[in-house]
Amino acid sequence: MKDVVVVIGAGSIGQAIARRVSSGKHVLLADLRPELADAAAKVMSDAGFEVGTAAVDVSSRASVHALAGAAAALGDVWGVIHAAGVSPSQASPATILRVDLYGTALVLEEFGNVIAPGGSGVVIASMSGHRLGALSPEENVALATTPVEELLALPMLQPGRVTDPLNAYQISKRANALRVMAEAVRWGKRGSRVNTISPGIIITPLANDELSGPRGAGYRRFIDGSAAGRAGTPDEVAALAALLMGPDGAFITGSDFLQDGGVTAAYWFGDLGKG
User: Fold this and answer.
1) Alpha-carbon torsion (46, 51, 53, 57), positive or negative
2) Residue 118 in 3-state DSSP?
3) pLDDT tens track for 32-56
4) Where does the pLDDT of residue 88 fall: very low under 50, low under 70, confident under 90, or very high at 90 and above?
5) Total structural domains in the chain?
6) pTM confidence score
7) What strands lie across the sheet with 4-8, from one edge to the other?
8) What's the rounded Cα separation, in Å, for the pair 231 and 252?
9) Can you give the residue range of the structural domain that contains 84?
10) Which among 26, 68, 192, 269 is least surrounded, fewest beta carbons within 10 Å?
11) Alpha-carbon distance 159 to 155, whole Å?
12) Helix axes 234-245, 12-21, angle to 10 degrees
């Protein structure tokens, strides 16, 4: 049996990471939409990878539990790449919280039960989590450690407090980084590691939705006002993920890596936060 790399969310970033870390391993591509997983699997299979597919709804414990079991049945779960999510232009606040916040916590818990010794995980969060104002220490602890099935009942996540899709997205992505830090303790007891990457504007279909949506002008302003002066690519995220998941990242766990071309720096300490 080969080592297994599970990719949750068969989009551009998940595929790019999988191509960097999965040579000689069995790739299990999972997505809410089976046709997306099948299309990604064909591309990877044609490039010489051993690939299988599965359907998963990250907002369903039964679905994520079944995926973890299916992955473990294939071999040692060496890698977990969690790249599934919805953006502010795609969903309501309630859906964003259920998919991006609750769903990520669920994936971390379920795959933390099956990750192999020496294995590693990467969760794709967002620079949006870094544009949220400071939370209280109590709120940080709550997002990091509240039992998964109680998360959405937290007072700070109720409709009166989470006021719009962008707010829900920012809270969810901040929660992803906090949750990974807490879960890294539990994963470490299995001899495995997990980290978060918070990309900026990476050209993917999801980003193109945002660029053509109501926040498109703001996105273009972020790109123009950043130090890099451009959007990023999935391959650049994959290069960082490969470092974190490979032997050169063996001393890194429970950490969040902001990869946004300088947008957040310009937001807090430059001109982007003044508009």
Assistant:
1) negative
2) strand
3) 999 999 999 999 999 999 999 999 9
4) confident
5) 1
6) 0.96
7) 50-55, 26-31, 4-8, 77-82, 115-124, 193-199, 256-259
8) 26
9) 4-262
10) 269
11) 9
12) 40
**Of 102, 173, 219, 267, which one is the catalytic site residue?**
173
Asked if residue 28 belongs to a domain, the reply is yes
Give the Cα separation of 58 and 55 in Å (integer).
10
Which CATH number belongs to the domain containing residue 22 in this structure?
3.40.50.720
Confirm whether 169 is a catalytic residue: yes
Using the predicted structure, report yes or no on whether residue 275 has a pLDDT greater than 60.
no
Residue 79 counted as domain residue: yes
The 10s digit of each residue's pLDDT in 122-181 is 999 999 999 999 999 999 999 999 999 999 999 999 999 998 999 999 999 999 999 999
Whether 269 maps to a domain, the answer reads: no
**Tokens 């807090």 sit at which residue?**
268
Rounded to the nearest integer, the mean pLDDT of the chain is: 95
End-to-end CA distance of the chain: 55
Question: Is 173 designated active site?
Answer: yes
Burial 31-59 (b: 16+ CB within 10 A, else e): bbebebbebbbeebeeeebbbbbbebbbb
Identify the three-state secondary structure at position 28. Answer: strand
- In-domain check, residue 275: no
Instruction: Tell me how far apart the alpha carbons of residues 54 and 122 are, in angstroms, rounded to a whole number.
Output: 19
Find the Cα–Cα–Cα–Cα dihedral 73, 74, 76, 78, rounded to 10°: -120
Which residue(s) pair with 258 in the sheet? 198
